[in-house]
Design goal:
single chain; alpha+beta; Immunoglobulin-like; 5-stranded antiparallel β-sheet; 4 helices; repeat; Neural/epithelial_adhesion; Nephrin-like protein
Length: 482
Amino acid sequence: MLITVPAAIIKSSEVVFTSINEKAVIMCEAIGNPINDQMIAWKRNDSDAEIIPSERILISNEKGKSTLTLLETHASDIGHYKCVAFNGIGVQTETFVNLALKQKPVIIDTNWFAAASEAEEAVIKCKAIGVPNANFKWSNDVEGDLILAFSLEDIQSNQESKRYSISNKNLANFEFESKLTIKKVSATDIGSKFKCSAYNALGQDSIEIMLRQKGKPEAPVNVTIASINHDSVILSLIPGFDGGAQQTFRAKYKKVSTNSEQDHYQISEESNSTRIAIRGLEQATEYVVAVIAKNCFGESNFASKSLRFTTKFVEGTSGGSPLVDTLEKQKIKSFSKIVLMIIVIALGLLIVSANCAFILVYIKRKKKNDLQKNNQCCENSNGVIVHNQYHKECDQLQQQKQQKNHKLENHSKSAENLQFTHAEVGFSEINPQQFEFIASTLMLENSSDDNSGSKRCKVLSIRENIDKECSCFLKAVGDTPF
């Protein structure tokens, strides 16, 4: 009888360390019945898509064993890989393998100071992150390199000497911590600097930590407003050195007022975290606040910079009395006034522009109408417009033109422009500029004199605007020999 067993993973890489452009090999092995070459698949992080082999990525499977090889590691390859085993029986099993990028240790989250009193025990901490594991060693400026050095390969035991002990611990995510314990602090230890060095095959990082006498804490730094309401505010801070004892934080605050009687501080509740809550404030009120730290030895100085803030305003009324606007609302009102003023100015300019345009159009149309009226009036019987004079002759000449119209029907007309000079025409009362104007625009009628054989002409018509005022002067030219 054939017994079938679901596939189960029995061995895999937990962490594989690699560098950029370096080869990385990840292995996974499973058992089960039946067993075949395709029972293991590789996936990336939480994706359901299987990794596809390529020129850079190789996958080899043989009898429940699978190897994923990256011939050249890229930065995008760093992360978790999932080995999935399934032989068609039951449900699949899986495990994760972490591909980590090698890096030298970097010391993190470490104070520059430690504190102790003479004859007491002192503990100095040092944290670092590194891939692969970071090892530690300690030294000081009095004794030089300490004999004790701790390696994570000896994780089961603590190294000890007559005065010092060192213990290291693997925290998580390639973060490591080392503690140097001074069993009995001497007078020479106070004020000394102890050097912590974290190292691996790729390099090391170091920091010097001064051992100080226990005392008051240092003032907090980087105090900021985390949130604000109509009756409360929450402050955020970064602690300073605690002075070697547990410290708490509190805020001193007061209303901003010109009344000296109200110029006194109130104290908030103490907080042992990096956030301080101040409650019971008045709405729409400006306050100034400063933060201090406290331990069993006393209080620190105020934080280097005090803060000003204004509580928010609650819409509505209290006890039937109107509430005072907040500074924020006052700013909004000022802004609204400015906007309104800009709108009024813009509308005024628009109205002025429209009026100017209307006046210009009116003037233009009036001039056009006057021009048409004058053109109708400003034609003599010969059709010549000479100068802006004798406007009173207009009506008379208009009648003369009507009387002579029947004479024009018996003459043949020519549209030819005749070339003649001022002397030939003989207009003694017309100056040269007026003559050039007439000669360039009039149309003549040719006629022959049977007795003398000379030719004469009559001006038939001419229409021309003399000036911008659209008025005209009519001058009868009459028959002109040439």
